[in-house]
Structures are given as structure tokens and as C-alpha cells.
Amino acid sequence: MEKPFARIVVILCAFTIVFGALGRFHPLGDSLSIFRVPASLVCLYFSLRLFRVSWLFPTVSLACIVSLSVYALGRYDFAGVGLFRTTIYQKNLSFRLADTTAFIEDVQMLEPSFITLQEVTEQNWTNLLPLREEYQTALLCPFAAVGGVAVLSRYPSVEGTETCHNDLGAATVQVETPNGPVWVTSLHARWPFPFDQTKQMDRLVPELNDLKGRGLIGGDFNMVPWGWTVRRFQANRVSATRTTFKKEWLIPISIDHVLGKYAASELTDRRPLLGSDHYGLFVTVDWGS
Known about the structure:
It contains nine helices and twelve strands. It has helices spanning 2-19, 27-33, 36-50, 56-73, 101-110, 122-127, 129-132, 197-209, 228-231; strands spanning 84-92, 114-120, 137-144, 147-153, 163-164, 170-177, 180-188, 215-220, 236-237, 256-261, 263-271, 280-287. The strands form two sheets. A six-stranded mixed sheet has the order 3-4-2-1-12-11. It has a six-stranded mixed sheet with strand order 5-6-7-8-10-9, with no helix packed on it.
């Protein structure tokens, strides 16, 4: 009884691992990719148990785990030595957050160049006024019932570049730094298949990829770093892989990321929850040519 059960479990886990790499062809792949790490661990456990019976079946399974999982976890991109340096603080505030005091204090201590926020409600946007007054640019765009998306920058915006991408969950503005212009985008992706993440990205990704020059995208992607939703952006993922979303009844996963065009990460510091269910990311970014 143990051998057939173990084989069924390994087959199901291997299916999850393999088809989770096919998000480019069908959105179900991205949804399955969320479970790649736990599926790999379960597959590894039962594959090792099957070694007592046969070497062929578990060897093939282990090959799938190693080739796909190592590739996925190794996706941490660098663009070389930078010409200048900036910092960005990425945070899903949570629409339930009423008291933003701890978050404001954390930001004031770190003094990031840019801030990208999601689930920004009218209430917590009002409560962020002391912080907004410290930044030259503050753009808020409405999105969903859980709140909008916002970008704050210590640098002034380039006239005419502040953009709310309709109902696509993104706010974009180009700012003028002492070393030239930089596009900054805050993104909140919808949930993956069977929900509308793919349709949202089909419309949004071309708009963001068409932006010329240096750029940063900070956001709650609702997708793990190896998912196709993240990979399809024409930018390096400059935030290191960290668990960023934590709920008591769900597996902790990494779904908040910072992407950079012509950028590389020097350091990623995961910040506390501070009343949210998402950890913050404080990323030091080096800029290339």
C-alpha cells in the first residue's frame, strides 16, 4: 500500500513542479509555481522512500526537482557596478492598517529615496501626511476595494509624467534625480489564475516595458519570483528572495519584489510587518549606464 501511495504523491508533486514552470503558456502554470518549494520537499521525501524499491522512478523525480527548483531559487540578477546609488522602500500597507505611526518611524529612520505602496486607503493616506510632506513627489492612484497604489520620491517629478494606469493597479512617475531621470512605479497585481492577474498583466506589462531609460518597479506582485508574471517584465529583479507575505493559515511566500531597469541590488533588508500582513523591503540600488 505504501509504494502505490508514494508513487501517486511523487507524480502529483512532479506535475506541480513541471507545469509550474509553464506559466508563459497558461496562467495555471503561475498558480502552480507558488507551490513549487513545498511540492519539491514532499517529492524529495517520498522519492527517497521509493529508493528502497526502485532507483529509476525516484531518480527521474529528483532530476525534475533539482533542475527546476535550483533554477528558480537562483534568479537573482545583477547588472554590474553602478554609477550612482539610490534606495527604495517597498510595502503593502494593508487596507486594515489604521495606525501608520510605526511605518512612518521606520521610513524616517531609513530615509529611502523612493517609496512604493499598495493597499493605500483614504484613511492611511491621510495618516501618512507627515511622511508625504518630507517628499517632493507623492502620487496616489485608485485601484481596488482594498486601496490604491502610491509612489513617493525625494526628487521632483518630470512634468506630465504622473500616470495612473486606469484600473490596472499601477502608479508611475518619472522623477529627476541629480544623476538623471528615473521612472518609479508602484504595482499591485491581482490574484493569479483562476483570477484576473494574467489579463491585468497582458495590458500593463507592455505599457511599463515601453518606458525608456532607468526605472524601478516596487510592488505586491501576488506571484513568486520565478513565476512568469515577474519574469515578463524587461527589468532585473533586484530584491533578494525573502518571505514577504505571512498569514496564520497560509504558507509564507515571497510575492513582494523590486525590479530595476539598468539597475543592480547592493543589499535587500526585509523590514518588519508593522501592522501589515506583508513585510517591507528596503533595497539599495546601484545604477549602471
